[in-house]
Specification:
Layout lengths: L10 H18 L8 H34 L3 H24 L3 H24 L5 H26 L5 H10 L3 H11 L11 H15 L9 H9 L2 E2 L2 E2 L6 H18 L6 H11 L6 H10 L9 H11 L4 E4 L3 H9 L15 E4 L3 H8 L1
Antiparallel strand pairs: 1-2, 3-4
Helix pairs in contact: 1-2, 1-3, 1-15, 2-3, 2-4, 3-4, 3-5, 4-10, 5-10, 6-10, 7-8, 8-10, 10-13, 11-12, 13-14
Keywords: Membrane, Transmembrane, Transmembrane helix
Organism: Cuscuta epithymum
Protein name: LXG domain-containing protein
Length: 364
């Protein structure tokens, strides 16, 4: 099967997509029976801030390019143009593939921090130093290529279909899958104690074994290049500008799809979870118990599986939304599925979310 891709929108249409998604998300809040006006305002603010973050990042990229164009700074001007293209790819990824707006908030926070550090590096650049200029330009180009690779890996689920089916049939737990690949790379100790670069390498090992890397232009060479990008001469590669935190969220989504897509979740499960959370939301523990009652068995009847499935991929179009979505995601994927999840003390909702990937072609 040929590889598929998304529609890549440029700056102006990204703003329109962010606003369109925001409007639909606010409409979908009709399904969230909030316990108070203050809680409703919290979620409305999150939706508004998501769209505002898109505009802010694009505005800052354009302002940076205009600044160096006015000052006839050709070196910084070229890198600023490069940075805008990279930001556009990152935002296409955020808007089209992070459907859960409560998780997208956390991703955008990491993205804004990443770009703030890039902007500072451009400002501090010694334009008279060819090695320094080349290093910054090549780093941004490499990260841009990685984001485009993440997008392709995210949408080409067919590339690892057989492996996903094998995992589903074997009943292996997510944490055991991660442990196997951690050991394969020679890492010891707890996954959560690994450096972010090492965690990315472990998740890349899962993708290699699954066959998902074939989605990169269908080329073995491209797949190998993606894998090698984490390692140089057998030495761990250090990611710059806070990029690893953002990339870990991308990789978490992809690895979870590889792990979980072998056995699609049912409409019956979706309806049961929606019902469980419709009266003012529900704690994670209640959602896990509800899932078990729908005959979700084995590794799937766990807090880790229910939380990751609902927050990351959704359950037949419905997502587990909550102010703690980013926290739960981090606990799962920064620990390789080892960390116990809090099952009480916070409220989650199960609601439909707009699909930015379906909306993007309407604006192109």
């Amino acid at each position: 099967m040929a590889a598929v891709d998304i529609v890549y929108l440029k700056e102006g249409n990204l703003r329109r997509l962010a606003d369109l998604i925001r409007e639909q998300e606010i409409q979908n809040m009709y399904y969230m029976n909030f316990s108070s006006v203050a809680e409703q305002v919290q979620y409305l603010t999150m939706c508004n801030n998501n769209a505002a973050s898109v505009r802010t990042l694009l505005d800052e990229c354009l302002a940076l390019a205009a600044k160096y164009k006015r000052s006839n700074d050709a070196v910084r001007g070229r890198i600023s143009d490069q940075t805008l293209v990279y930001a556009e790819h990152c935002l296409n990824n955020a808007l089209q593939l992070f459907r859960n707006f409560t998780l997208r908030r956390d991703y955008l926070d990491k993205m804004l921090d990443h770009f703030t550090q890039i902007f500072q590096a451009v400002q501090d650049l010694d334009t008279g130093s060819s090695p320094e200029v080349s290093d910054l330009s090549e780093t941004i180009q490499e990260y841009d290529q990685m984001i485009v690779s993440y997008i392709r890996l995210n949408v080409n689920t067919h590339a690892s279909q057989e492996y996903s089916q094998f995992l589903a049939n074997s009943g292996v737990e997510f944490r055991d899958l991660v442990r196997t690949h951690k050991a394969k790379l020679g890492f010891t100790g707890r996954f959560e104690d690994l450096e972010e670069d090492e965690k990315l390498a472990v998740y890349t090992s899962v993708l290699e074994e699954s066959g998902r890397l074939r989605a990169l232009d269908g080329s073995k060479a491209a797949a190998e290049a993606f894998s090698i990008s984490y390692w140089h001469g057998g030495r761990k590669k250090k990611f710059k500008f806070g990029s690893a935190a953002m990339f870990l969220m991308d990789m978490g989504q992809i690895v979870w799809d590889v792990y979980s897509s072998g056995e699609p979740l049912t409409t019956a499960l979706r309806e049961a979870l929606v019902f469980a959370a419709e009266a003012g939301g529900a704690a994670l523990g209640k959602l896990v118990a509800t899932a078990a009652a729908t005959h979700l068995l084995g590794a799937k009847a766990s807090a880790t599986f229910v939380a990751a499935a609902g927050i990351v991929g959704g359950i037949v179009g419905a997502f587990i939304a909550g102010a703690v979505a980013g926290l739960l995601f981090g606990l799962i994927f920064n620990s390789g599925g080892e960390a116990p999840l809090p099952t009480d003390g916070f409220v989650l909702y199960v609601v439909p979310m707009p699909n930015g990937r379906d909306l993007a072609p309407l604006l192109n």
